[in-house]
Amino acid sequence: DAKTTQPPSMDCAEGRAANLPCNHSTISGNEYVYWYRQIHSQGPQYIIHGLKNNETNEMASLIITEDRKSSTLILPHATLRDTAVYYCGRSYSGGYQKVTFGTGTKLQVIP
Amino acid sequence: NAGAMQNPRHLVRRRGQEARLRCSPMKGHSHVYWYRQLPEEGLKFMVYLQKENIIDESGMPKERFSAEFPKEGPSILRIQQVVRGDSAAYFCASSLRTEQETQYFGPGTRLLVL
Question: What's the mean pLDDT in A11-40?
């Protein structure tokens, strides 16, 4: 079973950058890396995705290592509203997005 | 946040009953995905449907579970003869197109089997 692994929890001070790691050492060349987050009792929310290159959008940056075996999600200035469970996943790129999620990192942003 | 709509939000069933979970995709979206989240676990893909077609059901248990997305109306995830192990949060997501399109998740249906 292909797996992604993430630390179960992390703390981050408000206003600082939050760096969330993900290991996907068995990722295939045609699989994308996806990040979603889930705020308590809500549905998951898309954050960002990438294949090989680093990506940035209005929410976050995604850094993928050259060998693609791991990635880091960066929230540049964490706020209290960023407290959530962050899921790293991988998706087959062959025509539709079928995401296999890891177990998630519970990020607690501290005032 | 904008996303698919799901109902009911909470569903309680006794063992052996049937559970029907509904998902209305966002306007204009014709692709629907269902995921299951067991307590204290991450999301697991179950099935991907387009209108009137099941494209990928590789994550769906072979027995008691079925899904449909008719030409008219919402997508339905049906669980027959529910057991306690079916207790979970079931999320659907919709997308506009296929290739690496963002999925917009609904708020989920929390199924509790007594």
Answer: 92
Count Cβ neighbours within 10 Å for each residue of B84-95 and write b for 16 or more, e otherwise.
eebbbbbbbbbb
Partner A contacted by B56 (CB < 8 A): yes
Tokens of B69: 């997305």
Low-confidence ranges of chain B (pLDDT < 50): none
Chain A residues close to B99, C-beta within 8 Å: 93, 95-97
Q: What is the pLDDT of residue A1?
A: 45
How far apart are the C-alpha atoms of A35 and A44, rounded to whole Å? 10
pLDDT for residue A94: 65
What is the model's pLDDT at position A17? 97
Nearest to B99 among A43, A87, A95 (CB): A95
Tell how strand B109-113 and strand B10-13 pair up: parallel
Cβ-Cβ contacts under 8 Å between A and B: the total is 61
Q: Find the range with the poorest average confidence among A12-21, A94-103, B71-80.
A: A94-103
- Tell me, what amino acid is at A37? R
Structure tokens at B62: 């072979």
Q: What does the pLDDT average to over A49-72?
A: 93
Are residues B96 and B103 in contact, defined by beta-carbon separation less than 8 angstroms? Answer: no
What residues contact A100, with CB distance under 8 A and at least 6 apart?
A2, A4, A89, A90, A91, B45
For residue B2, the chain A residue with the least C-alpha distance is: A45
